[in-house]
Amino acid sequence: MANLEDFDWGKFDSQGFGGSYSADERAKMEQMYADTLNTVQEEEVIKGTVVGITDRDVILNIGFKSDGLVPVSEFRDMPDLKIGDEVEVFIEDQEDPNGQLILSRKKAKIVKAWEMIYGALENDTVLEGVVKRRTKGGLITDLYGVEAFLPGSQIDVKPIRDFDIYVGRKMEVKVVKINAAFDNVVVSHKVLIEKDLEQQRAAILNNLEKGQVLEGVIKNMTNFGVFIDLGGVDGLLHITDISWGRINHPQEVLELDQKVNVVVLDFDDDKKRISLGMKQLTAHPWDALPGEVEVGSRVKGRIVNVADYGAFLELMPGVEGLIHVSEMSWSQHLRNPQDFIKQNDEIEAVVLTLDRDERKMSLGIKQLSEDPWTKQDVLTKYAVGTKHTGVVRNLTNFGLFIELEEGVDGLVHVSDLSWTKKIKHPSEFVKVGENLDVIVLELDATSRRLALGHKQLEENPWDTFATVFTVGSTHKATVLEKSDRGATLELPYGIEGFAFPKGLAKEDGSAVEAGEQLDFKVTEFSKEDRKIILSHTAVHTAQPEDAKRKKFEKKDAPAAGTAKAAAPAAPKKEEVRATLGDLDALSALKDQMMSTEKEAGEKKLAAAAKARAEKSPEADASAEATESAE
Question: Which positions fall inside the S1 motif domain (predicted)?
């Protein structure tokens, strides 16, 4: 053994560790060492072998110069992990500041998951995931560590009402869309079901026949019907084919997810539309309609619908009759059916028509009471000259219709409303719904016609007007309106007169205007035509009576310059004077008589006006207001 004292430590330190190797020996040695190691790259997934397990980490050998550590928490899905097992890991860093190899099994699983997801989209393969939670509009599914969105519309072929029942369940899905920029994945379970249903659908459609009874499940419900799943094919059960009776909404008799038997009513191969029926599986209620139900018989039922034209009475589920609005009342004035009937009312009616083959029935309720025109006392009750009070039901251009009682109407012509006023339309005199006193003018019970009058309740004032508004008499009048034809005047006692344009000139030459109150002289009076013509011009251009007499004397005097005529003229002068005196006396007597008649007429008109005022509450109120104002 060499002496340690003779060892050259300086030479050893200068060469360093392995410095004794030559260059060829060193290269050979490094090659031998490199052959025993794997070449690894960062962000790569490789397989590693478990060489040790501690409380915190799992030690993995990946064939690199050093072993890597992975937290035990990343192996929770492998409770039976033991030394010697191989697992895939992700190389995060070949060497950290401490010279340690950094590995991650979690990231390795994510990388492998994305590879599987992209491969499933390219190859159209099926993946299995676990539903983690519910979210807005769908579900979140875990695909090997990657969260994918499963829309609610892609869960099943039928609408899903409760998403929570899928949470925690395994579900096979297909990848339908990947957004690489945001790492979003959209999957579908519905496409897998549709493939299975396509074969079932084809089999059902090939064997489908009208009248065939099938079993289905109610998958959707609307106000017009329900959609039934027949095992891959949907059919529509319209609301009118659910029950023989009338229903307002399918939910009254059916429920979602309910199994029902239906019959095929019709189908379209091209559009793949199937019409289904449920009520057709039971006998029609009309077939069970009792034989005692016939025209003229009375029936009871419930009002199931009220329309503008009438109401439907349900005698029994599926058997209905129409009560037209004209059959609800004897009145000739059609009103809203809801004025007589309300929905769900239990009423009695009379059968008017019945067709069992067509399954149609018309009913009436006015027939439960007697027709007022067929009553025995109708001829005496509404005899000509009888007075009544009725309700104004309708207004027309030529008059108005009054209902004296239900079913008994009469016409009041516009000319029979007032003696004094010229009414162009009945609306100027009365309104619909108001009461009006009338007198019967004509009666035709056979034709159900009554001619009525209102003005005939009062005495014709034109008989009295003839003594008040005599030709030549002067009266205060107010100009109501003025036109090119003339002016309409308001005279005392509510009567109207008319003045032509030539009678509207004032004394100063100006024209009379609307709203002015002036004296007018009567120039024409016609009781038959109820017409009074007046003139204001005649008031200030009238000649005095003595001037008229002088003109009359001058006209009757003998011609001057005739000797023969002058001799006998003397005795005739006295005769002429006597004649003129007699004329004066007659004129005075006539004026006195006319004045007396006029006073009597005015008193009569004043009494009539007072009587009308006493009948009118509004006039009484007006009179009281006037008295209090005074």
Answer: 43-106, 124-190, 211-279, 296-366, 385-455, 472-537
Find, among 455, 423, 431, 462, the residue nearest to 441 by Cα: 455
Burial class (CB in 10 A: 0-12, 13-18, 19+), 518: middle
Of the ranges 34-48, 320-334, 413-427, 547-561, which one carries the lowest mean pLDDT score?
547-561
Average pLDDT, the chain: 77
Residue 86, classed as helix, strand or coil, is: strand
Of the options 2.60.120.10, 3.60.160.10, 2.40.440.10, 2.40.50.140, the CATH number for the domain spanning 39-108: 2.40.50.140
pLDDT tens, position by position, 561-591: 443 444 444 444 444 444 444 545 555 555 5
Task: For residue range 414-456, list pLDDT tens digits in order.
Answer: 888 887 777 889 988 889 888 999 999 988 888 888 899 888 8
Sign, CA dihedral 39-40-45-47, equals positive
CB 290 within 8 A of CB 254: no
Element at 69 (helix H, strand E): strand 68-71
Enumerate residues 6+ apart whose C-beta is below 8 A from 450.
382, 404, 408, 409, 410, 411, 440, 442, 443, 444
Q: What residues have CB less than 8 Å from 150, skipping those under 6 apart?
A: 131, 138, 139, 140, 141, 171, 173, 186, 187, 188, 189
Q: What whole-number distance in Å separates Cα of residue 68 and Cα of residue 48?
A: 9
Q: In 255-387, which residue ranges form alpha helices assigned H by DSSP? A: 378-381
Could you tell me the sign of the dihedral formed by the alpha carbons of 363, 365, 369, 372, in that order? negative
Instruction: Give pLDDT, residue 351.
Output: 92
**Is pLDDT at 412 greater than 70 in this prediction?**
yes
Token pair in block for residue 420: 């004094």
Supply the pLDDT for residue 82. 76
Report whether 469 contacts 522 (CB < 8 A). yes
* Every domain range in the chain assigned CATH 2.40.50.140: 39-108, 124-194, 208-277, 297-364, 377-453, 461-535
Q: CA-CA distance, 60 to 68, in Å (whole number)?
A: 5
- 336-354 pLDDT tens trace: 888 788 888 898 999 999 9
pLDDT score of 469:
84
CATH T-level assignment (fold) for domain 297-364:
OB fold (Dihydrolipoamide Acetyltransferase, E2P) (2.40.50)
Query: Is residue 368 helix, strand or coil?
Result: helix
Beta carbons of 339 and 310 less than 8 angstroms apart = no
Selecting from 3.30.70.120, 2.40.50.140, 2.60.120.200, 3.40.50.1780, what CATH number does the domain 208-277 have?
Answer: 2.40.50.140
Torsion of the alpha carbons at 113, 118, 119 and 120, rounded to the nearest 10: 90
CATH number belonging to domain 124-194: 2.40.50.140
| Architecture of domain 377-453 in this structure | Beta Barrel (2.40)
State mean pLDDT over 300-329: 88
The closest alpha carbon to 157, from 244, 231, 241, belongs to 231
User: Is 100 within 8 Å of 66 (Cβ atoms)?
Assistant: yes
Structure tokens at 268: 């379209």
Structural fold of domain 461-535: OB fold (Dihydrolipoamide Acetyltransferase, E2P) (2.40.50)
pTM of full prediction above 0.90? no
Q: Rounded to an integer, what distance in angstroms lies between the CA atom of residue 499 and that of residue 485?
A: 9
Q: Quick: pLDDT tens for 121-151.
A: 888 888 888 888 888 888 888 887 788 888 8
